[in-house]
Amino acid sequence: MLKHVNEKPIHPSRVIVLGSQGFVGSHVIRELVTIGINVLGLSRNQVNLLDSEATSNLLKYLRPEDALVVVSALAPCKNNSMLVDNLKMVQALGAALEKTTLSQVVYISSDAVYADEVVLATESSNVQPSTLHGMMHSARELMLKTVVGKTPFAILRPSLLYGLSDPHNGYGPNRFRRLVEENKTITLFGEGEEKRDHIFVEDVAKIVSLVLQHRSQGILNIATGGSYSFREVAEMLVSQSGNSIQVQGTLRQNPITHRHFDITNCYKAFPHFHYTSLKEGIFQMMCNRIMETA
Amino acid sequence: MFIGFAGMTHLGINSLVATAERGFKVIGFDQDPHIIVQLKQQDPVVVEPQLPELIEKNSEKISFTSQIKDLFQCDIVYISPDVPTNDNGQSDLSGIQSLIREVVQSLNSKAILVILCQVPPGFTRQLSFPKDQLYYQVETLIFGRAVERALYPERFIIGCADPKQALPTPLRTLLETFKCPILSMRYESAELAKISINFCLVASISVANTLSEVCEKIGADWSEIVPALRLDKRIGQFSYLSPGLGIAGGNLERDLTTVLELSQHYGTDTGVVSAWIKNSQYRRDWVLRLLHKELLAKKSDPIIAVLGLAYKENTHSTKNSPSLALVGSLTSYRVKVYDPVVSPTIIPNVEGVLSAEEAVKGVDALVIMTPWAEFKNLALSTLESMRGRLIIDPYQVLDTSLLENLGFQYLTLGTSVLC
Predict the structure, then answer these.
(1) Among B282, B329, B330, whose Cβ lies nearest the Cβ of A262?
(2) Boundary-marking domain end, from B186, B208, B233
(3) Residue B216 is part of a domain; what is its CATH number?
(4) In chain B, whose CA is at the least distance from the CA of A120?
(5) What is the ipTM of this complex?
């Protein structure tokens, strides 16, 4: 659950987004700029957290009144060396945080930190990652928590993200949208029965913005509260495209798992914020694509 | 024979009145002179059906005092204040410990001391008072039915130093007038018996809440299932099977916390207790989730009426009230609040009104958070004075047959088929 330092929203004097060129980081910057918040984006071109001089390089940018949003990661984390590199990045960041005091630190984590058997996830669900990606985020959360001291520290754990500029082309709305665009068959794992909560990347940016304005601290999941099967997602995309694209199942290799979210804590933290539904988000993504190609 | 009750909060006053009604002379003592002044004016401070009437009826047998020395004439003195708990359900025993210290100084040498209030296992035995005059008695009062429960207990559970010894005559004489079984056991067993009863209740409540949510999703109706359960002898006709908005009132929460603390100390498995608490917290926010989904995400500047602030009907208690939690989560919206007993001034920045009709007029959504009887009589014309058509009535207070075909969206616990 989040607690707000600022009961009423106040623009932070400056926000630094670490990982500014990534999918989430770029959307966060766009959202903050849109509402008039002073932002400095840092990508690996300015500060490479794997560099031996990373800590001192980063310290050149940090000012005590800054709020820091940490999105930078080698993701998805697929192997041991990526895990170690991701931890080294936060080690360098942590060393910088120990040498300065900021107004707030916000870490973008993932719902992969939760145990696989968590079906209805809340912020107090059991953290027991079963993947390197989840372990990476879980460890980074703890590493940062250890060094932030009394600085307000927020951990945001988004579910599966979708949006036009997603670079990973992961199984779900992002890949399905590209297949629809190319008029190609959508192939599902099994019959696509698994239900997941898909979150529109622009909503992540809006939540980050609210967390910054309220100087919130604590943990918040970022999820809509509605879960859909991958087949439903595929059929939604096909339906909105107007094309007759086949959605095809395959022989199931893995057991079916579902994940839902109880988003009551979001209602309590931000009573006036409401998520984009999957149907609206897909529509918006496809409209954005049309405008992009026009 | 004089029976004294030290502590005139909910537990003490209801127990005192029931004892007087059984024909005994009773003395009610409280350290707070304001409470005694109110009681002398026959204003019982707490809300319970029959309570004012029975105080008046038995006025010749009842006296109230703030002078502790007046307890000297008593043959039996009950330690009877309600033990306060914090938000985590942890008891603050300092008040009762201090009260016991003072009371024992004022007793005559033959007086029997009975601990009636909610204490954790191990509490009674560690008191320094002659063990053959010291007893613990389990209370099983229910808010809203306290007088009835005190007058007609199913049984007495009495904790003793040595259950093989007969109860002293004054105590046995008093208890036998209630004409119910008397179960004597070790102090620790009696203290845990109280918790055991509440655990069975919590288990039933958790079953009802868990499965009623499933009903809401799959098109079943929990109210159709309940009669089948009540006819099962292993479950029983008086089981707590009505779905609700989590556990409230303070007493059940206290016992859950006590057992979690015992588990920490002794290393016992209490995974199920944590699950009950989690389920209770989840269910408490049922209305908030629905309001966001059905109204707040769809309409700008909505107005909401909340009827009921008490945690249940026929009580003034708001301890862990789901209604207060709901209103507290809606502070940035316009909310009109009415409760027949609880003043809305206990919540900052809400619009308290003087009647249900006034609350309902012009709102987009009506939420009935406490099933007070007077809400059952809301006229159709009152409901039609709403601006919107969303009614969230968790306990199904309203007669749904009146609402059919009038365009209301009606949501209640345990079913989706009435919508």
Answers:
(1) B282
(2) B186
(3) 1.10.1040.10
(4) B282
(5) 0.88
Domains and CATH numbers, chain A: 2-159+201-225+260-275 (3.40.50.720)
B242 and B164 part of one domain: no
Q: Is B332 near chain A, with CB under 8 Å?
A: yes
Residue B218 domain boundaries = 195-283
- The single residue listed with the structure tokens 């309001």 is B291
Burial of B83-109, coded b for 16+ CB within 10 Å and e otherwise, reads bbbeeebbbebebbeebbeebbebbee
Are residues B329 and A271, on separate chains, in Cβ contact within 8 Å? yes
Residue of B nearest to A275 (CA): B297
The pLDDT profile of chain B, 419 residues, written as one tens digit per residue, is: 999 999 999 999 999 999 999 999 999 999 999 999 999 988 887 889 999 999 999 999 999 999 999 999 999 999 999 998 888 888 899 999 999 999 999 999 999 999 999 899 999 999 999 999 999 999 988 888 999 999 999 999 999 999 999 999 999 999 999 999 999 999 999 999 999 999 999 999 999 999 999 999 999 999 999 999 999 999 999 999 999 999 988 889 999 999 999 999 999 999 999 999 999 999 999 999 999 999 999 999 999 999 999 999 988 889 889 999 999 999 999 999 999 999 998 888 889 999 999 999 999 999 999 999 999 989 999 999 999 999 999 999 999 888 888 899 999 999 986 54
Give B-chain residues touching A121 at CB under 8 angstroms: none
Question: What's the CA gap between B16 and B28, in Å, rounded?
Answer: 7
pTM to 2 decimals? 0.88
Q: Based on the structure, what is the number of domains in chain B?
A: 3
- H helices of chain A, in order, are 23-34, 54-61, 80-98, 132-148, 173-181, 201-214, 230-241, 264-269, 278-293
Distance from the B324 Cα atom to the nearest Cα atom in chain A, whole angstroms: 13
